[in-house]
């Protein structure tokens, strides 16, 4: 295996990112990257509403706090959505939105498992 970069970097070439910008982007939490990667406006809006609802319910204030969410948090949130008399399809969609986030966090090795798995999606 070669230790060469895949593209030649010309000496003195102009970089578009400053070194500080490059390092800041490397430190963006995966929770933020997941949301930034949603390009469909209606999907983005629906997922944002679901995440905002969950964040409001749990009191999460930093992206990293998603990493300590358990199945119990999600079951209790689902119970709250039922108590608020949201429809079954709304509840399923909100849980699916969170499942997408946690699946991404699993892929990024930020969490060991998806706590939404095994949570009944409601009727």
Helix-strand blueprint:
Blueprint: H1 19-26, H2 30-36, H3 41-58, H4 71-83, H5 88-107
Helix pairs in contact: 3-5
Features of this protein?
123 residues, mainly alpha, DNA polymerase, domain 1, 5 helices, elongated
Written description of the protein model:
This protein has 123 residues and is mainly α. The chain has a domain at 29-107: DNA polymerase, domain 1. The protein has five helices and no strands. The longest helix is centred in the C-terminal third of the chain and has 20 residues, at 88-107. It is elongated, with a radius of gyration of 19 Å. The termini are far apart.
Share of residues in helices? 40-55%
> CATH topology of the domain at 29-107, anyone?
DNA polymerase, domain 1
| pLDDT averaged residue by residue | 89
What's the story with the biggest beta sheet? none
Structure summary, number of beta strands: 0
Q: Based on Cα principal axes, name the global outline.
A: elongated
Strand content: under 5%
Task: Identify the CATH class of the domain at 29-107.
Answer: Mainly Alpha
Rg, alpha carbons: 19 Å
- Find the structural class using helix and strand composition: mainly alpha
Known CATH architecture of the domain at 29-107: Orthogonal Bundle
> Count of DSSP helices?
5
N- and C-termini, Cα separation: 53 Å
Low-pLDDT residue intervals, each spanning 5 or more residues:
none
H/E element order: HHHHH
